[in-house]
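Quick one:
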Amino acid sequence: FTLHAHGQIEINNITQHQSTTLLNIDTTHYTWSTHDMTNVYNHLLTRGYQYGSSFQKMQSLHGTATSVVAQLTNDLSAINDLSSYRLLHPTLMDACLHPILTLIPGFDTTFIPVGVQKIVNIGKMDLSYPNLEVRGKYRDNISGLGQDGTYTLD
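Output:
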C-alpha cells in the first residue's frame, strides 16, 4: 500500500481559557514513569519500530496501563531547511505516535498507524516552541493493514 498518512488538523488560536488536559487522563495516578528514552526506543526496536536519532523526540513518559503522557522535544537544529515548515515538522508529527506505541500490549507484533483522527493545537504554534506534550489512550481497538488487507482487533 502507499498510504503514508491520513488525518485532520485543526488550529484554534484560543486566547481565553486554555485547557492543559486534552484527554481525560488523571495525571495524579501514574503507575509508571521514565526518563530513560534509550530503553524506550530499544523496546520499540524489538517491536519492529526502528527510529533514527532525528525521529527520537521523546524526553519523558508517564502513564498507566491504558494512558500515556509524553514530553517531546522540538529541537530542529539538525534540520537544514525549515522554510516550508510553519507548524510541525514531519519528524515531530511522527514522534507524536511513539508514546501510544508503548501502550500496545505484547512484544511480538508491529502495528503501523495508517490514520490520525485528530490533532488539536491550542494557542499559537510555531517552530520556536522547545517542547510538546502528547497525551494518548489505549482503547483495545486497533485497526491496521496487514499483507492480506485490512483487519481490526478488539
